[in-house]
Design goal:
The complex is a heterotrimer of chains A (376), B (306) and C (509). With 376 residues, chain A is mostly helical. Chain A has a domain of 216 residues. In chain A, helix 2 packs across helix 12. The longest helix of chain A has 48 residues. Chain A starts with a helix and ends with a helix. Chain B is mainly α and 306 residues long. Chain B has a domain of 205 residues: ABC transporter involved in vitamin B12 uptake, BtuC. Helices cover 73% and strands 1% of the residues of chain B. A two-stranded antiparallel sheet of chain B has the order 1-2. The C terminus of chain B is likely disordered. Chain C is an alpha/beta fold. Chain C folds into 2 domains: 235 residues, 3-Layer(aba) Sandwich (Rossmann fold), CATH 3.40.50; 243 residues, P-loop containing nucleotide triphosphate hydrolases (Rossmann fold, 3-Layer(aba) Sandwich). Chain C has 17 helices and 22 strands. In chain C, strand 11 and strand 12 form a beta hairpin. The chains are: A mainly alpha (376), B mainly alpha (306), C alpha/beta (509).
Chain lengths: 376, 306, 509
């Protein structure tokens, strides 16, 4: 009797739960889509103000991103670094760590990969692996600075990252312009050896095996985040550190760990660019992939699957933007602008504000009561 | 040695420091109100662009400065609203506003002026050099302190004004209270949002002047991302001075000296410019660590385990 | 007597919870009116309504016999109401004078006249005999003087009605004495002081009248001279038995948990636990009664590994667990139900199965070489859901989708699985519905019968009496006495909770 009742209620519950899941999923897609849509609309306004036809501009952008194999390969090429940096940022955000220093970590990873790429000689796979490891380690070392400062001294990691990004840019710039500079007019290190190169798929674009690696990494991180004890700990620390501590999770260790892993992924972003695209470390090669990673992570709602789609979206905008720039007077910088609008819109709380404010008052009421007990 | 240390160096320092001082003044006000304004580079960039654009089309510097300040203030209001009203994280909002300014100015550079990297034109008027009446004619003094544009003098004149406004006015007292303990300010009837928004708008105003100086006076051209992290460096100076106005400006000028020297040292001794440029950030890191140690020391009773 | 404050029929609901349920309250001109009640009784809500922080759903307020509508604190200030919050609202780096005049500063044309501010503050301090240096920086002052700044801030705004929210919670005994003198001075000047507290000896000492609140209702308003502290304690915690858990007499066996001479500091650096010793044996429920804020929180946090003790020892089954971290405590077989399930006991955004897994996610059972056996974890969660009858629970849904009572069952289910022997239950039925309370109580008794030692901390005497086999009473960080539950009376426990020992002598707190 009791059993059948339980079964009955189970069916009812699962129906309710499914509706909940669907709604959750719909909301998860709806808000980013609305942000992207609104950004495109604002962009259209700017294009129109410049005396161009927004529809035509967007059409060329879309065709430039997806029409034809060549364009699509280029889109994937621009997607690749965003897969890495988006993953680095989203992984950190999920673990409650605001790593906005991915740009700097990526630069050091790139420099390390570049150095290992020409200083040692080794068989192809080993050489690539060593360069990658060096990049990951370099990224992690640079990420360790904000990690340890937050964990031990309580220094806001955002401020530290903010300062470390230009420091990384200047220091890698120094190394590639002075002590490690290859002869010639450009500020770059020596070209890496052929054995350290990531294979490019076509002659026309620089899409390389790093793209495959990024996809594998996303899958690995999906497993780490959803199917491992560590991933579970990181998630809980990100959601509620007090709960995690009560459950016996070392919160400080978890924060440092998450920073290091995020830094490693950021370092790999740099390795892909150096080993696969540029074949040397060029001073200032990054147009801000680390910052794009923030937009990717916010669109992706911090899930690896979301990162794949969000990176593809921004990659397509970047790649299509180049074509649009050739066909119209609208430059690809429009994409940067769109990205900024998307970040702003996703970071904000609009319609919910009034509701939240009401809830806050209610909360203050209950909080007031618990404060009433106070500490002796 | 004489090519490095001469009167020209002082002039260079003053000119290099001016945009930093403007940014520092704006950043100080928001800092005091408890807002970490990392969007100042964005404000200045928009100002620099609109300054050049307006000067090019109207040939009138007053209009150009006005447009620059207006654009910067609009960016500031955008930043302030998203952070204060829509509760966007201040770092994310700051980074986004910076990206927006960078993208927008680059798009408009092509759209309105037909250039992709740099725009300069002989149609853009130059600021007249102001000769200070009393010291004009005195050999060294006039060389040092006379003959800059109005904006340079404004930067240094606004410094005591901001400092006094902070310490001697009711508004300044309220800003400090809002920044340190908004609850306390609200409990005595102070409108916290209004005070914070006022400082953000004023930071837009100062960054507007700073941006106008950069494009219209310092180099007389616009180039992409030309603020070169000056907003961030100003913020670093504020951090290092822990918000004291006089110290902040002093540190700003020190950073200016480092920059001015960097150019000369590179030319004559061959020291890498990056090494000098990295100083402000590096110094700020040290200040952050020092403050961190202090707070840890104060927290001895909060038994944080692990 | 003239009433300066009169509140009638105040109703305030947060969701389904009535924080204030048709409350009447009045305070006369020139009197010290104590407002007492347990946490959650609704006294802070009532005062926040009076101060305009919270808008009431129903009811009216009269100040000096004039009906008023208090929409925000600024209106309250204008009406001469001032509130000194438990957490001071001061700006640490500003001077005493600047803090006091902030918001209505002297000076003209926008300039702030610092000298005038200092002079006015000095005069004010003089008039009310509240000695203070107007130039001192607030962060350098001891807590007692900071509170004085808060009071002066209200007086500067010409407050006639002062609300002091738990003003002695942070004070030393000497500072408390000074505060009482100040309060007397103020009332002799014609001011009304409303004194929120749950320290009963203070009520006896300083107030003219006292109002007692319980569970959102006003229980009584009395002249202080006509009631004893013990009677007051009884009124505060009430005794409205709704149901009685069926249980056999206990058969205590070996000692599972032993606390020896434990001393613990609070966050503020004061000694909160002052030499507590106690034992919990297998097969018994030991109840710790006491008014909140008497060191229970700190004691429990040490037992749970969340705080370090300064002296003494904690033994689990005979071996020391001093300085264990939460994981070690858990591995030693301790189950802990924290008093705040939302902040500590659960992660509301995480799935139910994830909340049930906490603490076991690294064990061989669910974790093989770092990989989580999600299938096993969810089927384990499913089993707990049916065993603990958690209604409306879908393993994959976030915990926040459940009602309060069912959320608490998730905590219980997790903590009571895996053969833990020692159970620390801190306010296990706070904020849950009656059905859930009954279920939780039955579970605690069932765990006892299975041979666990249960240490129950509760400010609710009903809960203490219906569950405990032995009752300990804590007051001011010390155990005041131990009683066998079957001979204990509410009066006796109430006396001990008020700091009055068996012989009837008053203990100064």
């Amino acid at each position: 009797m009791a059993r059948s009742r339980a079964q009955l209620s189970d069916i009812g519950e699962s129906r309710v739960a499914w509706a909940g899941h669907l709604r959750h999923l719909a909301m998860g897609i709806l808000k980013p889509s609305a942000a992207v849509g609104l950004a495109l609309l604002i962009g259209a306004g700017v294009i129109w103000a410049m005396g161009e036809d927004p529809i035509f501009a967007y059409q060329t952008l879309f065709n430039g991103a997806f029409k034809g194999a060549g364009n699509f390969v280029a889109t994937l090429q621009y997607t690749t670094p965003l897969l890495f940096t988006g993953l680095a940022v989203s992984f950190a955000f999920r673990a409650g760590v605001a790593n906005i220093g991915v740009e700097g970590q990526m630069l050091f990873g790139a420099l390390a990969a570049g150095i290992v790429g020409y200083t040692i000689s080794a068989p192809h796979f080993l050489h690539v692996a060593l360069a990658m490891i060096a990049a990951a380690v370099a990224g992690a070392v640079w990420a360790f600075i904000p990690a340890i400062l937050r964990a031990r001294l309580g220094v806001n990691e955002l401020v530290v990252c903010l300062m470390l990004n230009p420091i990384a840019l200047l220091l890698t710039g120094y190394f590639s312009s002075y002590p490690l500079k290859a002869p010639g007019p450009t500020n770059k290190t020596y070209d890496i050896l052929a054995s350290a190169q990531l294979q490019q798929f076509t002659n026309s674009a620089q899409l390389n095996t790093g793209f495959i690696l990024a996809l594998v990494l996303l899958a690995v991180f999906w497993v780490i985040e959803n199917r491992t004890g560590k991933g579970y700990e990181w998630k809980l620390v990100g959601q509620n550190p007090l709960f995690a501590r009560y459950g016996g999770i070392g919160v400080q260790k978890s924060i440092i760990g998450a920073f290091l892993v995020s830094g490693m992924v950021a370092g790999l972003a740099g390795a892909e660019q150096v080993l696969g695209v540029y074949r040397a470390f060029y001073n200032g090669f990054s147009p801000g992939y680390g910052f794009d990673g923030i937009a990717v992570a916010m669109l992706a709602k911090n899930s690896p699957i979301g990162v794949a789609f969000a990176a593809l979206l921004l990659g397509a905008l970047n790649s299509g933007g180049i074509v649009m720039q050739m066909m119209t007077s609208v430059t690809r910088d429009l994409v940067k602008m769109l990205e900024a609008v998307i970040i702003l819109l996703l970071a904000a709380d609009f319609a919910i504000t009034s509701f939240k404010a009401r809830r806050k008052v209610a909360k203050a009421g209950t909080a007031g009561k618990s404060i009433g007990g106070g500490q002796a | 040695m004489n090519e490095i240390l001469n009167l020209g160096l002082i002039t260079a320092i003053i000119r290099v420091s001016t945009p930093l001082v403007f940014a520092a003044l704006g950043g100080l006000l928001t800092f005091k109100a408890g807002i970490l304004n990392i969007a100042m580079d964005g404000f200045m960039l928009v100002a620099a662009f609109l300054g050049i654009l307006t000067a090019y089309f109207t040939g009138n510097l007053a209009w150009a400065v006005f447009a620059a300040v207006l654009g910067s203030v609009i960016m500031a209001i955008l930043f302030g609203y998203f952070n204060l009203k829509f509760k966007a994280d201040i770092f994310i909002a700051g980074i986004a506003v910076g990206m927006l300014a960078s993208g927008l100015t680059a798009v408009l550079l092509q759209g309105a002026l037909g250039q992709t990297g740099v725009f300069a034109s002989s149609k853009i008027p130059r600021f007249s050099q102001i000769q200070i009446p009393f010291i004009d004619g005195i050999p060294i003094l006039s060389q040092l302190f006379s003959g800059y544009s109005i904006l340079v003098y404004l930067a240094f004149l606004f410094t005591p004004v901001v400092s006094l406004a902070m310490s001697r006015t009711k508004w300044g007292l309220r800003v400090r209270a809002v920044g340190e303990n908004p609850d306390s300010a609200a409990s005595v009837g102070i409108d916290v949002f209004k005070i914070k928004m006022e400082t953000v708008i004023l930071s837009g105003f100062f960054c507007g002047l700073g941006g106008a100086y950069l494009s219209l006076d310092y180099v007389s051209l616009f180039s992409r991302d030309m603020t070169a992290d000056r907003g961030l460096i100003a913020l670093a100076a504020i951090f290092f001075a822990q918000g004291n106005p006089v110290t902040t400006i002093a540190v700003t000028v020190l950073f200016g000296i480092a920059q001015a020297l960097a150019v000369r040292l590179q030319q004559s001794v061959g020291i890498a410019p990056q090494i000098v440029q990295v100083i402000p950030y590096f110094v700020t890191m040290i200040a952050l660590i020092a403050v961190g140690f202090q707070t840890v020391h104060h927290r001895k009773y909060q038994q944080v385990i692990e | 007597m003239v009433n300066s404050v009169e509140m009638r029929g105040i109703v305030k609901k947060f969701g389904t919870l009535a924080a204030n349920n048709n409350v009447d309250f009045s305070a006369g001109k020139g009197e010290v009116h104590a407002l007492v009640g347990e946490n959650g009784a609704g006294k802070t809500t009532l005062m926040n309504i009076l101060y305009g922080v919270i808008a009431p759903d129903e009811g009216s307020i009269q100040i000096d016999d004039r009906k008023v509508h208090i929409g925000n604190p600024a209106v309250a200030i204008g009406l001469g109401i001032g509130m000194v919050h438990q957490h001071f609202k001061l700006v640490p780096s500003l001077s005493v004078a600047e803090n006091i005049v902030l918001g209505s500063e002297p000076g003209s044309r926008g300039f702030f006249d610092r000298l005038a501010a200092m002079r006015q503050v000095a005069e004010l301090a003089d008039r009310f005999a509240l000695a203070i240096d107007p130039m001192a920086t607030v962060q350098d002052l001891p807590v007692g003087l900071q509170q004085r700044v808060e009071i002066l801030k209200m007086l500067y705004r010409e407050a006639k009605i002062l609300i002091l929210d738990e003003p002695t919670a942070v004070l030393t005994p000497q500072e408390t004495e000074e505060l009482f003198r100040t309060v007397r001075n103020l009332t002799s000047d014609g001011k009304t002081v409303i004194f929120i507290t749950h320290k009963l000896n203070e009520v006896m000492k300083v107030s003219d009248r006292v109002s007692v609140m319980r569970a959102g209702r006003m229980v009584a308003t009395l002249n202080t001279s006509e009631i004893s502290a013990a009677q007051l304690a009884e009124k505060m915690v009430g005794r409205s038995v709704l149901f009685q858990v069926q249980k056999q007499p206990s058969e205590p066996k070996e000692v599972l948990l032993e606390v020896k001479d434990l001393r613990v500091m609070s966050n503020r650096g004061l000694e909160a636990v002052r030499g507590v010793s106690l034992q919990v044996r297998a097969g018994e429920i030991v109840g710790l009664a006491g008014v909140q804020g008497n060191g229970q929180d700190e004691l429990v946090e040490v037992l749970a590994g969340l705080r370090r003790s300064t002296a003494g020892d904690v033994l689990l089954r005979g071996s020391s667990s001093k300085d264990f971290n939460p994981r070690q405590v858990r591995e030693a077989g301790v189950a802990y139900i924290p008093s705040d399930r939302i902040k500590v006991g659960l992660s509301l955004d995480a799935a139910i199965w994830e909340n049930m897994l906490l603490g076991y996610h690294a064990t061989r059972e669910f974790n093989r070489g770092g990989l989580l056996d999600v299938g096993k974890a969810t089927s384990f969660a499913r089993e707990l859901i049916s065993r603990f009858d958690i209604r409306g629970a879908q393993v994959g849904a976030p915990v926040k989708s459940l009602s309060g009572g069912n959320q608490q069952k998730v905590v219980l289910a997790r903590e009571f699985s895996h053969g833990r022997r020692v159970i620390i239950a801190d306010q296990p039925s706070r904020g849950v519905d009656i059905g859930a309370i009954e279920f939780i109580h039955k579970q605690l008794v069932a765990m006892r019968d299975r041979g666990c030692g249960v240490f129950l901390i509760s400010a609710d005497l009903d809960e203490i009496f219906s569950l405990s086999d032995r009752i300990l009473v804590i007051f001011h960080g010390e155990i005041m006495g131990e009683l066998a539950a079957r001979d204990a009376t509410v009066e006796e426990v109430g006396r001990l909770m008020a700091g009055v020992n068996r012989r009837g002598g008053d203990v100064i707190g």
